[in-house]
Amino acid sequence: MPFKKLHAHILETLERLKITTPTPLQRSSIPVIKSGSNTFCTAPKGGGKTTTLVLTTLQKLRCEAMGNAPRAVVLVENKEKALALYSTFLSYTKNNSLRVYVGYEELHIDIQKSEIFEGIDILISTPKAMKKLFLLNGINTSQLKLFSIDDAEFLNKSTDAGAVISITQSIKKCQYVVYSEKLHPQLKHFESYFMEHSKIIEA
């Protein structure tokens, strides 16, 4: 079964990248995420979690730039993963106007603040870097539509989990999607904070 009911830009990009058949996770999770539900997506390594994240983010933002404040945030474990995901997003946004920005602890916070202020649509960051942006009023979340966490196993570290909880408590209304290989107790614990009424998709 091919991908269906996605934005025309996304379908063109999938064709260009020769991605024709969704994985079991993509087949079951994309419609649920599109519906606006908070969602836990679990699948083994290579199950298509990151591609699902990219596709649903582009779909949510309708593949076009709008305003100056980020409308999607993706948290990852570290600089290496942030840059890798940034590269993946760029391969999908070549033919549309979406602006993707990547931040991490090693990049000076004042640089991040000024570059984000110029206008972005998608922010890729680490929990610590994002929390610092919040503390310094370096990010406007009033337009945020989608907040995703990729390979969320790293949140078993209490400091990162605490940073995520702190960040989400400052966001008024948003859809949350958490991707991991398994639904660990620490991740399930987020139901008490920002993953209310969440759906669980396992592949």
UniProtKB/TrEMBL annotation:
Record bears the keyword Glycosyltransferase: no
Pfam families referenced in this protein's UniProt entry, alphabetically: DEAD
Keyword Hydrolase part of the UniProt annotation: yes
Recorded GO MF terms: ATP binding; helicase activity; hydrolase activity; nucleic acid binding
Domain Helicase ATP-binding: 30-201
Organism: Cerina litoralis
UniProt entry keywords in alphabetical sequence: ATP-binding, Helicase, Hydrolase, Nucleotide-binding
Identification of the protein by name: DEAD/DEAH box helicase
Database matches in InterPro entries: DEAD/DEAH_box_helicase_dom (IPR011545), Helicase_ATP-bd (IPR014001), P-loop_NTPase (IPR027417)
